[in-house]
Design brief:
With 322 residues, this protein is an all-alpha fold. The protein has twelve helices and no strands. The radius of gyration is 20 Å and the shape is globular. The two termini are 16 Å apart.
């Protein structure tokens, strides 16, 4: 794909080096590389930086994420007048039996946007905007157009197949509050996963491994693994989803299309169950049939393909500036 990325304000040879401040920004990505090579600067000792960055993200996954979720559950428990024990309240909430559970889960995962940006800034001494895209920065118009396409395709896919027989109108209590959280905070949750798996993780892995396909596959495996128990069709569904999003990030030079596609998927994956009273089942889903997995994968492929074509039409940059 031919692109015309913006030129750097400084030649690559004159990039900023060490300054008097130990936390100063010191590096920029190499010139003319794809998204996965944004951290491939030999001065940063890629292997050591990858291990350090991975450790920080794992700490976020196992401590920050559940900490935020637990704090929001605690606030909800106190505001409700401490009904029963906190452990029981938290268990129901974490199964999305209370709106606090949805909010806590989504904000906990959304925290990875902040964790990834801080890691870029203070571990790699690189501006966090390089996580969004190779432009650098977020290309909002591109993201919005892909989101609109995803809304159309996901809904056509759903109502043409499982939605016609599986959906039954039976809104949950406080459905309006659930939907408000899902629509407003759901995109932040999707952004958190994308900044983690397709953003920071792909850049970390790409700093060590040379093959882009391997980088994408490793990221997809990690994405699939953290989703817990799943039968084979659901595992394939999630792996293909992760691999397609990772490929899309490389082919479009940024996270925008992946975030849009992921956000729309999650909004409807949780939104329709709120309206049919099956949110708890959607939260703990561990099995699907091959038919549903196939329909989902077809929708993913169509949206990813259209997103790529939209990116080409908009001439989004796919490599860092020269």
């Amino acid at each position: 794909m031919t692109t015309t990325p913006k030129r750097r304000t400084q030649p690559a040879a004159n990039r900023p080096q060490a300054t008097s401040s130990s936390w100063a920004l010191r590096y920029e990505p190499p010139a003319g590389v794809d998204y996965t090579k944004s951290l491939a600067d030999t001065k940063q000792r890629p292997a050591m930086m990858a291990v350090t960055g991975l450790a920080v993200m794992m700490m976020g996954l196992y401590f920050v994420n559940p900490g935020i979720s637990g704090a929001i559950n605690g606030i909800g428990w106190l505001l409700r007048g401490r009904p029963g024990t906190f452990d029981h309240f938290a268990a129901v909430s974490n199964s999305f039996g209370h709106p606090e559970g949805v909010l806590g889960s989504f904000l906990g995962i959304a925290s990875f946007v902040v964790i990834a940006m801080l890691s870029m800034r203070y571990i790699h001494r690189q501006a966090p905007r390089w996580l969004a895209s190779v432009q650098p920065g977020m290309r909002w118009r591109f993201m919005l157009i892909v989101a609109i396409v995803a809304v159309v395709v996901f809904n056509l896919s759903y109502w043409a197949t499982s939605g016609r027989s599986d959906f039954h109108w039976a809104p949950m209590q406080h459905a309006w509050l659930y939907l408000l959280i899902i629509v407003l905070v759901g995109p932040l949750q999707a952004a958190g996963e994308e900044y983690f798996f397709r953003g920071y993780m792909q850049q970390l892995i790409g700093a060590v491994l040379s093959q882009r396909a391997v980088v994408v596959l490793v990221s997809a495996v990690l994405f699939t693994a953290v989703h817990g128990t799943q039968n084979l069709p659901l595992l394939v569904d999630r792996f293909v989803f992760g691999a397609l999003l990772g490929t899309l990030v490389v082919m479009t030079g940024g996270l925008e299309a992946a975030i849009a596609m992921h956000a729309v998927n999650n909004i409807f994956a949780f939104g329709y169950p709120v309206l049919s009273g099956t949110l708890a089942d959607a939260r703990t889903i561990s099995e699907v049939g091959w038919g549903m997995a196939g329909v989902n994968i077809l929708a993913y492929v169509v949206i990813a393909g259209l997103a790529y074509l939209i990116g080409r039409a908009m001439k989004v940059a796919t490599r860092t500036p020269m």
